[in-house]
Amino acid sequence: MRDLRKKILLESGKTVSRKARSRPDSLGASPIASPAASRGGSRVNSRYASEEEDLSDSEYEDSLTNSVANSDDGNEPVHAVHWTEILADRVAELLDRKRSSAQGREKCLAAYTHIIRHHYADEQLQPQLYELIPAILKSVRAGSNTDETLSAVKALTMTILTTQDESHYDSIYPSLKGLCEDSDEASVKVEAIEAMGIVTMCGGGSGVAAEELLDFLVEIVESDGHSVAAGDNGPTVAAALKTWGFVASNLDDLHEQSDVALEAFTEQLDSTDVDVQVAAGTNIALIFEAARELEEETEEASDLQYDQHKLIQRMTALVRESSKSVSKKDRKHLHASFNSVLTSLEHGKGPGYSTARRMASNPHTGGTKINFGEEYREYGYREKIRIHNISMTIDTWSLSARVEILRSVLGAGLAIHYMENPLIKDILSAAQVEYVSKPGKGERDDEYTSSPRKNRGGKR
């Protein structure tokens, strides 16, 4: 009877929490012949992760590695399946296409992606990498439905970020570009564009390849998406703009691309899509930031063929716009973004810089009013990311562009990859970091600041 009750507990999934069971990779190490056991969870398709999701990840980790179901007398522990075992099963499923269906492959790809997003799995993937990438590419090129294709592109992007493999670029990039141009689904085009940026910068693309991708993305923006059969599709154009920013942030010299790109981005300031407007504005700020950096390095004046004063006037008008056709939330987002860009253009600052002033010292803690009358300081950079005990300041537009793409791809997995994945650490290496120790009772936070490594990326 006791063994029967234990079996029922296992089969009912009560050894893990309800939240953990909702995740696609928390279903146990199922046999290869039963793809249904790797059903996708509702969180897999989320583009951005909330702080609550980060918290639930720790619960999910505990449920996989530490949960124990006991029998009535408490003496018979039940084995908890480790994420590496589940990943091995999903990889085996992906490599065995003969016994799979389109629906089974889609669910398996979603579960595989979820696992490697929330765990750094380079060591686990390397032994079968040269079989795994071609297997995923088959679903990219010939997916039986949109869900399989989308899941395959996401799986491919995460695999490249995890393994830093640079030997498959020549086979991956053309497939993604073809998918972007030929697919009838805007959602597929968006994922393919983002993946092209990741594969080019992290999967073996050269500096020339990066410049060619920038040209391709500008064509999409200039044509309002018509160049990839996505005419006037906001998400496609926004994806092209954001990916342009990510790729450009890794180049040391944007001189060749700046003039054409500026014209295309300025035209998109009049878009009816708020995400397109914001992405265009931030890319404009990134171009002027790159020009300022080049001036500092060469001590020569920038030759950008653009009227910055006219541009500032246009953005000032956008900040003051109060169209009723735009939702209150979007209007607030638009105004905040363009205020940040305006501050950048006028004062030569990065994103989120506040010129509001505060007293550098607090006169109420001692001293006289006259001693503190002249001590005022600007609030400065307000955009930060907190990862465990690390606080990262987003103080350049190039860093902001990188964070935007990594948040999109990694979601709640950004923290674990930043801590364990050397590639992600390198992508964000230009950030100023503060190490904040958790204070004890009656103590203040101790902060340790590291100087940022000044570079715009690895492509020359």
From TrEMBL:
Q: Sorted alphabetically, which InterPro entries does this protein's record hold?
A: ARM-like, ARM-type_fold, IFRD, Interferon-rel_develop_reg_N
- Stretches with biased composition (Acidic residues): 51-62
Indicate the segments forming the Interferon-related developmental regulator N-terminal domain, all copies.
Answer: 71-346
Pfam families for this protein: IFRD (PF05004)
| Coiled-coil regions listed | none
Note the PANTHER family from the entry.
INTERFERON-RELATED DEVELOPMENTAL REGULATOR (PTHR12354), INTERFERON-RELATED DEVELOPMENTAL REGULATOR 1 (PTHR12354:SF1)
Protein name per its UniProtKB record: Interferon-related developmental regulator N-terminal domain-containing protein
Q: Which stretches does the entry tag as region Disordered?
A: 12-76, 438-460
Record family assignment: Belongs to the IFRD family.
